TrEMBL record:
Cross-referenced PROSITE patterns: GNAT
Residues covered by the N-acetyltransferase domain: 1-184
Gene3D superfamilies reported for this sequence: 3.40.630.30
Superkingdom to which the source organism belongs: Bacteria
Entry-linked SUPFAM superfamilies: Acyl-CoA N-acyltransferases (Nat)
Entry protein name: N-acetyltransferase domain-containing protein
GO molecular function: acyltransferase activity, transferring groups other than amino-acyl groups
InterPro entries in alphabetical order: Acyl_CoA_acyltransferase, GNAT_dom
């Protein structure tokens, strides 16, 4: 079951995020800030997935206009004005539920919400080293195109100074694939 993320889900979202992505990926403060970036015009673009009453996945998405491009973004290559683009921050699923279409359902829910917020496209940085490169594969299947690869995207981030990558440890060298999804 897919539903809108609320503060009542925070503890479970933090636990799952840190399990899948590494310790320090999320905490109460960071999740609260990420959550607020997903809300615009009283529409929330953040969603969770449940199975048998247990949280098994989540998608965090920033509303168009609620985020700023940075050195990891290539807006001149998008062909769309940045204020009309949402940002797909994170899609996370518990291991036993990957490959079952749940990530796509979470993405569809966020797309529907961000369209109502005024977005015509979304950009994300997909984790190239995800298991079997599933993040990039799923986003490509959804219709996204690769804009640019950004090596060591999550290394020494001031926003995640205590982050420990599940692959690299404290010196994360994982590549982020900047991908654009134009909405139909």
């Amino acid at each position: 079951m897919i539903q809108t993320l609320t503060a009542a889900h925070f503890t479970d979202v933090i636990s799952l995020g840190n399990l899948v992505h590494g310790d320090g990926y999320l905490n109460e403060t960071s999740l609260a800030a990420l959550y607020q970036k997903g809300i615009s015009n009283e529409i929330n673009a953040n969603f969770v997935a449940h199975h048998d009453g247990k949280l098994i996945g989540f998608r965090l998405t920033y509303a168009p206009g609620n985020w700023q491009t940075d050195k990891w973004c290539t807006p001149h290559a998008w062909g769309i004005e940045a204020p009309k683009v949402c940002y797909f921050k994170c899609n996370t699923l518990a291991e036993p539920f990957r490959g079952a279409g749940i990530g796509g359902k979470l993405l569809s829910a966020s797309i529907a919400a961000t369209k109502r917020q005024g977005a015509i496209a979304g950009i994300g940085h997909l984790w190239k080293q995800s298991p079997n490169n599933s993040a990039v594969r799923y986003f490509t299947k959804a219709g996204a195109t690769l804009i640019k690869e950004h090596p060591a995207r999550w290394n020494n981030s001031k926003n995640h100074s205590d982050y420990v990558c599940v692959i690299c440890g404290t010196d994360c060298q994982c590549t982020a694939c900047e991908m654009l999804l134009i909405f139909k």
